[in-house]
Amino acid sequence: MNPIANNVALALSFFICISFFPLLNAMPDITPTCEKTKHKDLCIGSFQESYLGRYLPENASPKLLASIIIKIVVNNASDVSRNLKTTVLEGPVPLTPEVRAKYGICDQEVVSAMKELDKVRTAMEMSNRRSEKLNMQAAITNTENCVKELTQVEAQLPDKKQFDEVVVLKEMLENIDDIIKTMG
Ligand SMILES: *[C@@H]1O[C@H](CO)[C@@H](O)[C@H](O)[C@H]1NC(C)=O
């Protein structure tokens, strides 16, 4: 390429970049989707906090939005599980055998919830409404079980942080359930 053509090409690609930039920045409006949920602020907040929403087209369908919200929650669950393992089960604070056992059960429940959520996503892709609902309910029950276990030993917990994280996770799952229920 001669230098002039080179400059034109450069200017052109620069122009193309600039004109696409607003598109990349525009996020879909999550409010109508989150409007239907019990924990609405959490629904909107977790979507806006996550990097996952940034790659969506502005006009993303409700189904796509729901699947992204599920993905955000799966990531969250995996962080909750990691924190249970690294900061509590393998953490520096000695635990009584009873508290250790409860945390252990709780972590297994969170891991199961993640597996159920994977099934929900597959069910959504295949438009299997029955499996969607069943697996969603199973995932919620998993987190409820975890909360119950920790509630039994709440006074003995070295730190409330993980407990609170599980409660938030449960609320996020309830939100997905609300979203799925209102999808056609
Ligand atoms: C899970 O998501 C909620 C909402 O975005 C956030 O407040 C919380 O810190 C997350 N938990 C973990 C363990 O990342």
UniProtKB/TrEMBL annotation:
Native source organism of the sequence: Hibiscus trionum
Pfam families on file: PMEI
Alphabetically ordered keywords of this record: Signal
Signal peptide: 1-26
Keyword Signal: yes
Xref: SMART domains: PMEI
Name recorded for this polypeptide: Pectinesterase inhibitor domain-containing protein
Domain Pectinesterase inhibitor: from-to ranges: 25-179
GO molecular function: enzyme inhibitor activity
InterPro entries per UniProt: Invertase/methylesterase_inhib (IPR035513), Pectinesterase_inhib_dom (IPR006501)
